[in-house]
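Board notes (copied after class):
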Amino acid sequence: MKTIAKTFKGSGLTLVCTMLLLGLLTSSCGVGAAITENQNQNSTQVHLTTNNFTTIGNASGSAEANYVFSFGGWKKRNLYGQAYQNMLDAAQLNQGSRAVINVVTEEFVGGFPPFFTKRQITVSAQVIEFN
């Protein structure tokens, strides 16, 4: 640290400002979150008393939007709706008596706010088919 201080030969404030600027330029900003609460508003209830279904696999869909100075892209609600629709399309629910269970929503916000922000929402679920 002494060699760095000798290089700048200025006040300690110059050194601190330079280190903060280097830290900001070499790092990226990103926040991720997984929402595991049930956001599915369907009112259908199925009571599984016997093993009358098979697990087909997993399905996921995602949507993203870019914002410059907080302008542009979709609102969060529309972004979630598009990701959910993409997941339902991937689940191919029209190919039999299928349903999606254990729906999980993940959100990632990155970029360099407020200048540039990228928001990505991914919705994933398990697909089951009734016998």
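Comment from the instructor: The longest strand covers residues 53-68. The helical segments are 2-8, 12-25, 76-91.
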